[in-house]
Sequence to fold (1089 residues):
Amino acid sequence: MDLTQAKPSAPQTPSSLRHTDLLQLREVSKTYVTDGEPVHALNGVSFTLGAGDFVALVGRSGCGKSTLLNLSGAMDFPTTGQVLLDGVSTSELDDNGLTRLRRGKVGFIFQAFQLLNTLSVLENVELPLLLAGESKTAQRAGHNLQLVELADLGNRMPHQLSGGQMQRVAIARAMVHDPKLLLADEPTGNLDTQTGNMILDLLRRIANQQKTAVLMATHSMEAANIADAVVRMRDGRIEEVIRR
Amino acid sequence: MMSRLRVFYRLIVRPLYREPARTLLTVLAVALGVAVVLAIELAGDAAAGSFRSSIETLTGSANLEVTAVGGVPDNVVATLATLPYPIKVEPRIDDFATIPSTGQSIPLVGLDLIADHPEGFSLPEEERAGTSSLAQTLTADNVWVSSRLGAKPGDTLRLLINDEVHPYTVRGVLKDSGDTGGLVLMDIGTAQRALNRANRVDRILITVSATPSLEQWEQRLRSVLPAGVELRRQGSESSENRKMLSAFRWNLRILSYVALVVGAFLIFNTISVSVVRRRPEIGIARALGASRTAVLSAFLGEAACFGAVGGLIGIFLGRLLAIGAVRLLGATVDNLYVSSTPAPIQLTPLVILLGLAIGVAVSLASAASPAREASLVSPVEAMARGEREYTTRVHKIRDLWIGFALAIAGAAASFAAAIAGKPFFGYAAALLFIAASAFSIPALVSGLTKISSGMLLRIGGVEAMLASRSLASSLRRTSVLVGALATAIAMTTSVGIMVGSFRQTVQVWMNNQLKADLFVAPATNPSADRHPTIDVSLSEKLAALPGVAGVDRFREYEVSYQGLPAILGVGDTLGPHPLGKVEFFSGRSTEQVNHELRDGDNVIISEPLANKHHLRTGESIVLPLGDAQVRFRIIDIFYDYGTEKGFMIIDRTRALRYLHDPAVSNLAIYVAPGADVEKVRKELESVAAGHNLVIYTNRSLRAQAIQIFDRTFAITYALEVVAVIVAVIGIAGAMLALVIDRRRELGLLRFLGAAVSQIRKLILVEAGLIGLLANIAGLALGIVLSLLLIFVINKQSFGWTIRFHWPIAVLLGALTLVYVATVLAGFYPARVATSLNPIEVVHEE
Fold:
């Protein structure tokens, strides 16, 4: 793949898919105020992602990976700059608009799986569809469980699953509404190497086969190696983009 | 010690500051519970304690008294006064007068002022100057009034006594004694004239020396007294009244504990939440060397803090609530039992201690179980495993069996008899049923949420499904909340059904009993132990009016029967509808019973009297009448809801053989067929001009009775409302805790596409589901408790037969209100839930 070399102040784009522009971050900064002191979580980050791209974000804790994921997933507004998700600027939307955008275009997976213990596996997967008021939810959830090879565990409760199974359920849930962008925050952080690799293969397959853009934050360079490009972050800035 | 306190502060007290709203709501729940109990106690003391003042006004050092039905003959005074013993004999008239301009009723005391001057009594200037003779001054229409009445010497004071208004001249002002609401003193001769009690006094007070003993004095004096008078110890009337009021106060007291029980549920919940949340901290503290006892003490200490602060607030809140409560209670005591003027509410150190003790004790008792669980936490397990596994430990099937066993025990207890007139087993049965319901609620919640989950998804959307799952997953917490609210609802429902049934029974009874078209009574303030009279000649004049078909005369006397007050009724047993249309236990007609009443020394008694004294048809009662002790045979028992004291009714003609006073207390007038009731009423008014009477139509009398009924039960409704408020406050606090504990899940839902409005809906549906479950459980328990109240507690306390009736509108209204209040209680927690930052809460764990 042809990736543009890293320039901290310039837009960084996985070049082969540049024309699709599914996600664009333009000079994005995010400042939090903690105990009256401003904390700059992101500082002038520009970044573009297209359909089917698999990009890994790496860097130390506190470098801004999670903030970048949250802004990309329309969970938060940038302090300055612009985040365009499928051509829609998140700053121009109200809370309901952000919710609709997330429902249609974004799926999330987390390090701690974040399944609801009160719901069965199938119900967990069904949940985003139900929240969006969609129809044939059980059927679609069942189909997605098949994709992650857990169709026969639909009636189990989350605590009856292994860590790898839980993360696969989380992936099935994140993909159930066919999002264009999948955001994964340390998806292998709580898993052993073998299981972690299985999850990474699954994410890779999703990017390749469904043309879903995957943006994954990770501490592990081993995990990052599966991506098309690795974006190294430091102190809220993009330090380097490594193409593969 | 200091170091322990420091640890307690850091680990237990400081976290409370982090959730000020929830801490405040828990404290408020305890405060309201304590406040209600204290308010009823304080108001009960003020309202019930004050009747003493009117009876014991100016009694001095007297230790014995002589009384008789219809008054003690004058010659008894002479007999006692001429005995060769060193005793002081004071004849006395005790009644009430009404100030027509204000409607205020005040005790009227007639004393032999020539022989006896009460403390503070002074003669007017002209008497002291010798310009007027003492006898003239005392026997003229002069009165001495207590300073509280605000009259000055020389003022004219108009007093309504029986059915006539008399002008009196104020000759002096007496110092107020104790907590009386005012007093009018006149010479005994003047009082006898005013009250038409020639040759009779109401009581004779006797002061005897310390030796020989009081028992010996009683023996000596009884031997010279006629059979028809009673000699008893001074103050026994007060103690009889106190005894009579005790059932009323007991039941009120028990009702006041409901809010406290609901508060106890909520303390249990608060401490349970506290234990669950701090499980890892408990583990760490245990690993760092804290003993089991230290952990137990810490959580009990937390509960004690809630109890102490809640108790302190409750004391002052209770004092405020008592002001309203004493007004309601005072009116009830006055209308149903005995004349009373509410005494000042006294917040004594003992009451303050009681408030604190109640708050702390209830909190400690409620916290005992969760605190014990905390102390049993294994450090390794607590640090290794999360809260989830812990919270699911509810043994619902075992608890359901316990609930079943408790319900069986409750049913068994409901069949036991009263002890000393108090339905202790009835109360125990109520408690057992409440406990049974508390134990059964986890199974109910679990079962219903499981069954309804799919349906809720279809009806209420994904938010309803999530809400129901969340409730089922935190079964223990949900069950406690549902239990608290269900208990409050059950008490409200049961009292609603009981009062509704009672009201309906009274209405049916009045429709049967009150057959006359018009009722005439003196226009004094109504009170249960005052029986002012109407001149008998007036009844004859009224009976002679062309539109009047007949007049029934009825006279009431306050009597004492076996140490308890009762009313002796003397009525006409001939006429169009003598004694109305009474329903008898035997099923006989009123005519048949009246015939038998005229036939000999026979009496009919009311159901409450029969139950109170365990009297049956065929047995006899002995009444001191006139100069004799007369034995009356009970020929039947009738249903009566007019007075809890109980009625005994004898024929007027027969009564006049013993009691030589033909005056009547009220008249029932039957209008001739075809005559216009309103026209007849106007004619009655013109004939009765000069007499201060009130003429009720049949309808207005019934309306007034129902008004008194409703006022009587207003306080019970108020108590239930407070219990529901406590429960709703608890729901708000617990929902808040639920939101805080589930913030990760709520944040995650936002990541998964939930809108803010969906989060709000989720919390409100959760509150609504708690309300719904509590309504179902509360209604079921309420019906059981209402049966207990009607057929056990009420029957054993007051002796009334109440026919069960469903007050559907009241029930529906109450349940809807509670439901709406519960949903409203979810608003603040919902606001908190929607303002959570999903990014922060999802990543913080």
Observations:
- The helical segments of chain A are 65-72, 95-105, 121-131, 137-147, 163-175, 193-210, 221-224.
- Chain A has seven helices and ten strands.
- The longest strand of chain A covers residues 37-49.
- Residues 67 and 195 of chain A are 26 Å apart (CA to CA).
